[in-house]
Amino acid sequence: MNSREAIPVTVLGGSLGAGKTTLLNHLLTNAGDHDIAVLVNDMGSVNVDAELVADESELTVGGGVTELSNGCICCELQDDLETAVVRLARERSFDHLVVEASGVSRPGPVARLFVTSRAAARYDVAGLVTVVDARLFADTFVGGNPERTVAEDSDGTIQPLSDLLVEQVESADLVVLNKRDLVTDDEIAEVRDVITALRPSIDVVETTHGTVDVDHLLSDLHDPDAPVGWRAVLEAEAEEGEHDGHGDDHDDHDHDDSHGHGNEHGHDHDHSVVSHAEETYGITSFVYRRRAPLDPDGAEAVLGDLPESVVRSKGSLWIAGAEDVRYTYSQAGPSAYVTASGPWIASLPEFEQDTYRRNHPEIDWHDEYGDKRTELVFIGREIDEAALVEALDEHLLEPGATVVDQRYPVDAGEEFALAEPEGDR
Ligand SMILES: Nc1nc2c(ncn2[C@@H]2O[C@H](COP(=O)(O)OP(=O)(O)OP(=O)(O)O)[C@@H](O)[C@H]2O)c(=O)[nH]1
User: Fold this and answer.
1) Where is the composition biased (Basic and acidic residues) (predicted)?
2) Which of 12, 16, 21, 40 to mutate to test the pocket of ligand 1 (most atoms within 8 A of CB)?
3) pTM of the shown model
4) pLDDT band at 227, cuts 50/70/90?
5) Residue 182 CA, closest ligand 1 atom number
6) What CATH number did the domain enclosing 37 receive?
7) 118-133: buried (b, 16+ CB within 10 Å) or exposed (e) per residue?
8) Parent domain of 67
9) Number of domains in the chain
10) Is the complex ipTM more than 0.85?
């Protein structure tokens, strides 16, 4: 390896028990000509085939590193990831790094480390690969009853599983749909449709016990500009509505959203979109946009109790009584949150508004309400669009209506759960 060349890195994510370790074992046993280094959270769990462990490995074990007889390097993440990968590149020779992101971590931020930190000088992201438990995904999003509804990390962090599954798919370059043996042909087709709706240009491979094609897995799959489904729907809708004066400003004024996703702020204008994709299993999407605030209780009643047909929804909320706060909203399966995301542009001092608008001439600006709006994208399976629109419309209030509500947070970054999955497994 030329040490000055950037080393490709593949980030492997997926929920607990999806089959990441099984896939890593397959990868290490079938590495072929690849000199792979694998960085995992818990090496013991990889349980690499004994025959692969090099005779002298006892000598080289140090700092949690084991060298295998096939040239692969296995190491355990002991200190922070950035330090570990920089040290690894300095001290060892290998031509591809695979990093296992822990079961509840978001692959996006792990991948960003290789773009923005000291590690960027040595590495290039080759791909974000998400291992999906096809059974669990079908149970969560295709009308089953998931056995698990929350994900718990080793440090006790708990997150709704549906959020995590959606995030992991929305940021992936490749989805390995594992546990193919546990789902029917119909189920896998539905799962694939949902995955494509969440991430339109995604590459999906089906596996049983992680037997993915190693060359494919390690190939250059990364597209930082790949579209995220909900954003693609919004953009398609904005284009359709252009003649009636609807622009589109969401790329520019997305305050950091604590439920944010890896690539969602990418510039995906060149990609095809999923708008109104009525495919085999009736995946549909639509945008609800109103220049009026929602009553806080009404928003909670509707968005906190969406029909099961809605797989994913996301957007901005104008909430009556909190007229100056822009709320972002994010729902995945049974969990839904609003996050206070800072002020609307229309709530800023006038000179700041002017500056912003000069820099963003494309912003969808209303003469009276500026950028304030309720704008929600819904993606799901055979959603009763008319019923949902009617339910939301019933809770619209006049701009400026007086409402006293103490529950929605107003400080930027704070969130409020509209719906949380039941159960604690
Ligand atoms: N039926 C079936 N079981 C599988 C498949 N792939 C993996 N498993 C089993 O699923 C369980 C979890 O697999 P792991 O590879 O440990 O999953 P993981 O994602 O590494 O799990 P964590 O390390 O806990 O995050 C194991 O018992 C595997 O044998 C598959 O394709 N089909």
Assistant:
1) 243-270
2) 21
3) 0.78
4) confident
5) 1
6) 3.40.50.300
7) ebeebbebbbbbbbbb
8) 7-218
9) 2
10) yes
